[in-house]
Write a structure and sequence with these properties.
Shape: globular
Strand order of the largest sheet: 3-2-1-4-5
Number of strands: 5
CATH topology: Nucleotidyltransferase, domain 5
Order of helices and strands: EHHEEHEHHEHHHHHH
Number of helices: 11
Oligomer: single chain
Structural class: alpha/beta
Number of domains: 1
Strand content: 15-25%
Amino acid sequence: MQHQNLIVFDIETVPDTEAVVNLTGFEDRDVAARRAELERYHLAITDGRNAFPRQPFHRVVAISFLRAEIERSGAGETYYLQELRSGGTEKSDEKELVAGFFQFVERHKPRLVSFNGRTFDLPVLKYRAMKHGIAARFLYASGDKWNSYTSRYAADWHCDLLEVLSDFGASARVRLDEVCAVMGFPGKFGIEGSRVADLFDGGKIKDIRDYCETDVLNTYLVYLRHQLHTGTLAPDSYNRAVADLVELIKVEGEERPHLMGFLEAWGRASDNTFVL
């Protein structure tokens, strides 16, 4: 199957404190206490190595994505940027966000692009979809045994850059920030992922959505450079895709200041050299 669109996506989550009672019998209703209990549980089952909750225990609070149309020619692929946004609204609950994501993907049947999406983002979305009784048959019925959304090595269906860049674990799996630092992309700035729960507690959903969108932009830039490296994008097509992104930021930046903040950080990281 030749996908006509690519969708770069990222999610932000907070610990699912509602599950703590069923998990450990901890009945204190205080959110902070329940988060501490969830950490205690994960430290216990990992012999003190990792307090980070496993995938089912993440409540989705934001899903952001970039969509681009794919055009093919003898020179390879060309990407035409269509939109960059977050799903739902600031008032959307988790069920609406997750259902909207799977409906959107089913409608476009895209190539998915992520950074750690196969290990974290997509498993979280699957668990939370099951929690809410959301069906996503297309995710499992599309393609064939070797080429599908569920095939680990089918990068044309889901390109998880963390996996692909490490040759599926043959070399070290590096952080998105580290790749961005080398390539002159902004990486994380302003907000760290560790602050998402505090922002959520403070009702600052817009800040979380904006932060998630900047992660999507970083992922897209790394993906473009990867596609150039593999020969899928010609240099002219790479530069066109980057110029498209800069233009979108300039057009929408006045009403979406986090995009202008991204462009400024990108300029600092690259000495104001955006194209090759």
